[in-house]
Amino acid sequence: MKRLGTALIGCGAIAAVHLQAIAKLGLADLKAVVDTDETAGRRTAHQYGCDYYADYRNMLKRSDIDVIHVCTGHYLHAPMTVDALAADKHVLTEKPMAENKASARTMLEAAAKHTSVQLGVIFQNRYNPASVRMKQAIDSGELGKLLCMKGIVTWHRSPQYYETEWKGRWATEGGGVLINQAIHTLDLLQWFGGEIESIKGSISTDALEGVIEVEDSAHAHLVFASGATAVFYATNAYGVNSPVEVELVFEQGRLHLLGDTLYLHRNGTSTVLSEPVPNDLGEKSYWGVSHGYQIRDFYEHVLEGRPYPLNGPEGYKALRLVTDIYESSRSGQRIRYTSP
Fold first, then answer.
1. Where are the domains of the chain?
2. pTM over 0.85
3. What is the DSSP string of 171-209?
4. Which helix (H) or strand (E) holds 146?
5. Nearest partner of 326 among 218, 228, 247, 190, judged by Cα
6. Closest to 308 measured CA to CA, from 64, 15, 27, 92
7. Cα dist. 99→1, 241, 340 in Å?
8. CATH code for the structural domain at 126-284+317-336
9. Contact indicator for 173, 161 with CB cutoff of 8 Å
10. Which positions fall inside the GFO/IDH/MocA-like oxidoreductase domain (predicted)?
């Protein structure tokens, strides 16, 4: 099978997860990394044996690069993706796809225009074994109709976490706990629940007031077209990063995900359906191992010429939810989904 030439933009914390996955693929050769921080960029290039660029636009001129990984601040996702697609490069961008809906739509328009290449959005938790099993239970109907769901994220972010040029600001991060940390859980809820009828939510800044201009806590209530409902709560104001909790209640049982362990509660008995897959990410262990699964899936779709399902429109759904919670909080009104 052909090997693809690859480059990565943004040598921050998440970059290592992408680069390690690329190295293990056997489907790609890393050609370059890009970062405006020359020290970080050159160190990463030396570690992975590739070229370094300070300006991503110079890297895009190379004909031996087929795929671009965008791992930068949220506000840079859209312009970099649009430029890469125009340069005939496939793009796999970290979540959220952009800092707001308007920027995300420029990416959707570029992907629709440049049909010879593909745009993928990282939501690696969809590839977790437990998530796959939960989706299977919904699609198969093995537990009857899905009635309701809940998603709870209680994590911790210190003031020092926001000592960067872009985090904690509406213009560059696009929000706080919702758009950066809890978007994964929101994405799972909408992936499980299907078409959304309405959402109402509220945000606040409880522990980081005076440190950030965005929210550190949020809650929401979702109604799905199927009749199912969901409640959601997320905060960065907890004292530790505790395991994410997702519960799905069906007519004939209940699936309870705590961290990466999935339990089935049915007829008075509990069964473990899925257990955590060990990783070596240390304090970032909550990222899980599924970046590698998603990256491999993206590359296989590109190499085989198949449309990648977690594409721009699919990635846009979670961003829309996040921004609609912000709008609902500002207006005090429920957002109804009559059109995209």
1. 4-124+293-311, 126-284+317-336
2. yes
3. TTT-SSHHHHTTHHHHHHHHHHH-SEEEEEEEEE-SSSB
4. strand 146-154
5. 218
6. 92
7. 36, 24, 17
8. 3.30.360.10
9. no
10. 133-255
Superfamily of domain covering 4-124+293-311: NAD(P)-binding Rossmann-like Domain (3.40.50.720)
Exposure of 327 in the CB half-sphere (CA atoms within 13 A): 13
Q: Which residue do the tokens 């706080």 mark?
A: 176
Which of these, 3, 2, 55, 64, lies nearest to 31 by C-alpha position?
A: 64
**Distance in angstroms (rounded) separating the CA atoms of residues 14 and 292:** 12
Q: pLDDT tens track of the chain, all 340 residues?
A: 689 999 999 999 999 999 999 999 999 999 999 999 999 999 999 999 999 999 999 999 999 999 999 999 999 999 999 999 999 999 999 999 999 999 999 999 999 999 999 999 999 999 999 999 999 999 999 999 999 999 999 999 999 999 999 999 999 999 999 999 999 999 999 999 999 999 999 999 999 999 999 999 999 999 999 999 999 999 999 999 999 999 999 999 999 999 999 999 999 999 999 987 765 544 444 446 799 999 999 999 999 999 999 999 999 999 999 999 999 999 999 999 975 4
